[in-house]
Amino acid sequence: MDGTRSSEVEGWSRLHGHDVSGNRLAVAWIGLVHVLAGRVHRVPPDVLSAAGVVTAAGAVGVALAGGRWALPACALVVLSGLLDGVDGAVALRTGRARPLGAVVDAVGDRVADTCLVVLLVVLGGPGWLAAAVGASVFLHEYARARAQGVGMVGAGAITAAERPTRVVVAAVACLGAGVWPGGTPWTGWSWGAVCLVLWAATAVVGGAHLAVALRRELRGRTWDVTPDRSPPR
Fold it and tell me: Crossing angle of helices 127-149/191-218, nearest 10°?
């Protein structure tokens, strides 16, 4: 990596508490969002986070039209995923990274994830499986947040069930539904159903990976429950 790319990766790793310098896909992704961030650096990061949510919701609305409308919905899903990375890149490039911004970004991500789950139902996925998949997303992120709340530094592990995977699965469903509206080749299943099954499988693998990582990170830690005996002032 050159000096600029190295500093971008270092900044992302510091912001997320997880070193990704050895992950080629992550490094390539960080490079892409920083290139895009250079074009929109005047836009506040929170506005970009909100735009990502609106775009994900827009994908649901477009997909409701049915047929080939799934193709523009695919473009909106991809754009939503890009905005999710660009907001953080802009914050780093402009020195506007702050704790409140991280909370806004996290909440926006969960709303956008919910939109992606609804999108797969629109594309023919069963509601019960969508509910299970949606619950898995919140469980995954809640477990990580609670671990960080009791002292874990960073993400614990970058699993197969992270947000980029969710965006890719939803985009594939839209692309498939737009090109083959009759369902997946050979099976005839709806693209929403097939991609929900794929999402569920990655959720199981990712959840197991995260559970092992959280156990490793938190093992041996103790609570500080010593009462405060300092004299009153």
Answer: 20
